[in-house]
Amino acid sequence: MDAILSCKPETVEDYYGLLGCDESSSAEQIANEYRVRALACHPDKHPQNPKAVEEFQKLQEAKEILCNEKSRRNYDIWKRSGITLPFQAWLSLGDSVKTSMHWTVRSKKEPMLECSKPTFLECPQATDPTDQESPDSVPSSSDYCHRHFRWASDSPSSLLRKFRNYEI
């Protein structure tokens, strides 16, 4: 009970931060990050550092939890809940605390997607309508916008018509 009451948010272990990875990282990425950090802080490389063994054990624990699918799922639930309780203490409470905390858990963060094609958000209009380009010149970005991203003048689709008429 003292561990629960005396726990502060800054003392809670962040296994993702410890390994230098993210919630969206795969098990393979986590294992690779672990190898890099384990080689850097291995106790055999730093025999005069008394905290090297402790740091290495924390790295091992983080890797074991995050590479195991079930324990990682539990860790993610605990981490997103924001509760100031050590993970091991939360885990020892069993399923009773998990079912009573279902409302506090934030959703998993969305992965950032890279755009596969360039998109143009703004299409500046030409100031002089008499400016005509020769056929062998390279089209400007505004011409590209006008050719590829203009409103269709043909009749709207049936789905769009239903939407506008409040039918769906």
From TrEMBL:
Domain J stretches: 14-79
Disordered as annotated region, ranges: 124-143
Keyword set includes Metal-binding: no
Gene3D superfamilies with a match to the protein in the record: DnaJ domain
Pfam families (alphabetical): DnaJ (PF00226)
Keyword match Magnesium: no
Source domain of life: Eukaryota
Keyword annotations from UniProtKB, A to Z: Chaperone
PANTHER family for this protein: DNAJ HOMOLOG SUBFAMILY C MEMBER 12 (PTHR44500)
Protein name in the entry: J domain-containing protein
